[in-house]
Fold this protein.
Amino acid sequence: MPLEERIREDMEASIALKRKAMRDLKPVVEAARLLIEALSSGKRAFFCGNGGSAADAQHLAAELLGKFRKVRPSLPALALHTNTSAVTAIANDFSYDEVFVRQLEGLAGPGDALIGISTSGRSANVVNAVRWGAEHGMITIGLTGEGGGEMKPYCRVLLEAPSRDTPRIQELHITWGHIICALVEERLFP
């Protein structure tokens, strides 16, 4: 297959998934509304994920902490995997499944938002964090692939990409994340 044809095929698949996801925008609206509510009340946003989802978590936390489109006051956002000393100590002393929960125990409180990102919805450390967040009064938002996995019951809002293809799911997750960051900025800093 020629390279241009292969590229076109991947881009068409990405566009098709985004069109499919546009059929129900209510979860994206609700996630943005809840995050706006938390941040406007002086609460914080915590993000977690593994691999590509960790990269997305860090990217979105940075958009809120720094700026998305506007120069405006910083918003309290943190990707929980970025403190490598904490992650490795917790993984060593407890287990990798606890690396996010232990941090939430020390940093998060009721009303804070937790955005858990897992393309399968089955990453144990993300599932544990979202479960802990739900049990401790956090606003839990999940970004997953089709089915929602084990995270689904613990998410107040679930943004479920209608696909099982990891690269396409991640592309939709970052699109949703950018849209939510734009809505947060527009509403909090008109």
Summary: The longest strand covers residues 139-144. Helices lie at 3-21, 26-40, 52-65, 84-93, 99-107, 124-135, 166-188. The chain has a mean pLDDT of 98. Strands lie at 45-48, 77-79, 113-117, 139-144, 157-160.
